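Sanity check. The docking grid for iron/sulfur cluster depends on where the pocket ends up, so I'm generating a full predicted complex first rather than guessing from homology. Inputs follow.
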Amino acid sequence: MEKNEKNVNLKINGVAVSVPPGTRLLDAARAAGFNVPTLCYLKDICNEGSCRICVVEVKGARSLVASCSAVATEGAEVFTNTPKVMAARKTTLELILSNHEKKCLSCVRSGNCELQKLSLEYGCDENAYAGETLKFAPEINNPYLVRDNNKCILCRRCVAVCNSVQSVGVIGPNKRGFFTNIGCAFNKSLDEVPCVACGQCINVCPVGALREKDDTDKVSAFLADPDKVVIVGTAPSVRVGLGEEFGNPVGTDVEGKMVTALRLMGFNKVFDVNMAADMTIMEEGTEFLHRLSDKTAVLPMITSCSPGWVRFIEFYYPELLPHLSTCKSPQQMFGAIMKTYYAEKMNIDPAKIAVVCVMPCIAKKFERGRDNQAASGYDDVDVAITTRELARMIKTYGLDFNNLPESAFDNPIGEGSTAGLIFGATGGVMEAALRTVSEVVTGKTLDKLDFKAVRGVQGVKTATVDVGGTPVKVCVASGLANARTVMDEIKSGKADYQFVEIMCCPGGCVNGGGQPVRPASVRNTVDLRAERAKAIYAKDKSGKLRRCHENPIVKTLYADYFGKPGSHKAHRALHTSYVKRPKFK
Ligand code: SF4
Ligand code: SF4
Ligand code: SF4
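Predicted complex below; grid placement will be based on this.
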């Protein structure tokens, strides 16, 4: 690498490298072509420097240095793979293994576990150190997440993401020394504290200590029941995440193969939840225009499609609940439409319909069981599984996913617009709403459908958009620390927005807590949010149907069943209510 006077120049394993001041040795090593393993460090999220796996030797230093926290210095000579370094890493791994429940054969992370991979690479003896071990009862008493501290390696990535990225902070280290364990204060369980069910802690966990509550058995039971009509709907982001579970590059769109797989698994109908996202825009757009024209209405209106976000506002800002749109999320609208309109049209008793939703999210498992989510008298949605659970089912069903032919969603009700598709990325709901609201207000076709000011992975984006001559100030935020900033602005009266989109997960659903878990080696070098979103916007760019209100199914639903957006019937089936939640039980 070329020597640069402004940069810091050093050598890694004899290779000269020039890096900007402040660069960590870990990144300097990568720039020189050497990957250093990490267990606690995670770019932009966790910099604990506690696991000591990333140690390196620096010439002249008395002891090994943690490369995730030490920065490059001029003239330094660093060695990442000396016998001393390798022995230290191996000893650290074997000590971790000595107090780890090694159940790789049945562990959900086997094959995708950062500890397992390193133990293999370093030739560890898993029984090198025998001694006292801690035993914990796995935490299972909530509908969305399982915590098993017997597998926790105390890296604290989950603590960092919950605290800094989500500003929730319901987990942290309890006790000291050998007895240290990660949990809630006073050993409460997650269902006794204001955990929002985002699942971001699962996505950063290097091992099998955190996982979603597995509902695949329920799905298999429905598929095996001859008396059930089993309908599956897939969320926008699933198609750009699922492929990663089968070795495809980040952001590969596998929609066609996914549909084929679901059909081969035995679902009676395979529909696209994008259709329900289109309906969400019809209802939410109408609600927004009503609020905008009514001087007494509460503004800004805030979107309600993200159940982790809804839980967050219910716990932390209940006084702002009147700002929340009353629309159900696309998942819940999908289920409601299936068990009301579709059941009636196909002459099926809704009691015989099982609606399965595949979601990039674990909060959907909680949302499906909320009050006021049963338009037909039966639960709108029977089971919500994550992208990861679908991948496991595809593997268990013996399908050669990458070699499956592609096929299209079922019709007449299964197709959605690409405006519904962009719901998967932060800013997508806002953009889809602006496309529809602008055209509905003016009665004219927009020249440009792309609202680029609301796209991108930044945590908070604002823009002023002309809606038929009225300037509308919008704000888009993703990640709950960013949501908190916006809520504080609204609460203090400083915000002058009319319309706000909030997504619980950073970058939106493409980075949801149910998406494929990627190791630090990938997360430290690839922006999962940006790459998955890119695939969604590419599909929208070439899409034939880019406006929710032009979806023929949406028009039919209103003409044949709901009347018009915001009608009494639409309200009964497609809208809901919220509650103030006590923070502690
Ligand atoms: S967490 Fe990793 S090492 Fe531990 S049992 Fe699971 S796969 Fe094996
Ligand atoms: S699910 Fe979200 S809020 Fe709950 S512990 Fe995990 S990161 Fe924190
Ligand atoms: S639960 Fe997972 S992420 Fe959290 S400290 Fe333990 S190993 Fe690390």
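Relevant for the grid: The first strand starts at residue 8 and ends at 12.
Also worth noting: The chain has three domains: 8-81, 107-212, 217-574.
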